[in-house]
Specification:
Elements lengths: L11 H31 L6 H30 L6 H34 L7 H20 L1 H4 L4 E4 L4 E4 L6 H39 L1 H38 L7 H12 L1 H11 L5 H7 L13 H10 L3 E2 L5 E2 L1
Antiparallel strand pairs: 1-2, 3-4
Helix pairs in contact: 1-2, 1-9, 2-3, 2-4, 2-9, 3-4, 3-6, 6-7, 7-8, 7-9
Amino acid sequence: MDPVEPRAGLSRSGHTIVAVFLGLILFFGFLNNLIVLILFCKFKTLRNPVNMLLLNISISDMLVCISGTTLSFASNIRGKWIGGDHACRWYGFVNSCFGIVSLISLAVLSYERYSTLTLCHKRSHGSRKALLAVAGSWLYSLLWTVPPLLGWSSYGVEGAGTSCSVRWSSESAESTSYIICLFIFCLVVPVMVMVCCYGRLLHAVKQVGKIHKNAARKREYHVLFMVITTVICYLVCWIPYGVIALLATFGRPGVVTPVTSIIPSILAKSSTVCNPIIYILMNKQSPSDILDHCDYQSYGCIFKDNESLSKQYYRSLGVEVFANNSIAR
């Protein structure tokens, strides 16, 4: 995933340091997402429409670890790319595909969390909508990762020569147009969706706080912390990579060295470790507690253990709450 072509490769010690970081990302990324998958398999109640997006993120992140991080890790141990041209194109394609699936799923999840709480005016089939969202994330990713295989840009060995991605530094008009579109539709748009939806969600939570200040204050702070953590981790993991890619594309030749390209690449790969921690493992409750006290059709656990508060909030949005706590949309 390194966004420049190799110029002056890393030293032996440099490759070793990169291999250590990739090894840690591989271990913890695979382990964290494996825990998420085990939880979903063990607790049937977790298999609800909203959590299908979380499962989709974990699957795509685990596939990145298996298909990408492992090969890059092995290549850095050897100090060079260990695959051939076909392996390089395959590596660039599948890792770009899985990475974009994760990014789009995060954006869709932010919209789902926002719309579930604030746009409850229409009745919808949750499972069907979630399946469409999951399928849509994969189709959208394929839409932007297949073209380099067909001639609109290309995949190749890049950076320090131990991984493959889109040829960011290609000067052809086709590659430049592809990179601009990829940057806008696969990075900028997801960021804008997340910031907009989570910002509106925080505003909605503050409205709950105005109804019951004492009861909702801790919930508000918890949601604020989770939202800020989510957005910051997203930006830290992916914005540096996007910036380096643009510099490699539009900057003067040699402005991005292999060393400077390695750090954004590692940060992007580290998202496979951060995502399950933020969305699943940071929850201090055990799965049984979550199932007993959390309505998964609302946003996470904001209103757990506070039935009256959640009902008042939903009514303030014009949503009918039935006696069995179901919600009419």
